[in-house]
Amino acid sequence: MHALLPYLTLLGFLAAVLGFFTWLARRIRRRGTAGGGMSGALAAYEEAFRATSHASHHEIRAQGERKAPTDSPDGLRRRRRGKG
Q: What superkingdom heads the lineage (predicted)?
């Protein structure tokens, strides 16, 4: 048992560090306190290791940058009619 103690200690330390960074990343994303560098680093990580999450990230950013439809001068919104 004494021979395994250093390995178990190292494994516990690594698990604690990874858990801390996971918690920190979630908190930064949720609160939106990430600067440009942190946001870019997290996007690069997602692109490398989570391809579907990376695609969702770009779609959410594109949706956020779109402008909402504005009212017409008479105050009513009009729908465009599709072809056919």
A: Bacteria
In sequence order, the 6+-apart residues with CB closer than 8 A to the CB of 25 are: 42
List pLDDT tens digits, range 31-47: 776 666 777 777 777 77
**83 within a domain of the structure (yes/no):** no
- Write down the number of H helices and E strands in the chain: 3, 0
- DSSP annotation of 66 reads S
Q: What is the pTM of this model?
A: 0.39
For residue 55, give its domain range.
36-63
In angstroms, the CA 4 to CA 22 distance is 27
- Does residue 56 belong to any structural domain of this protein? yes
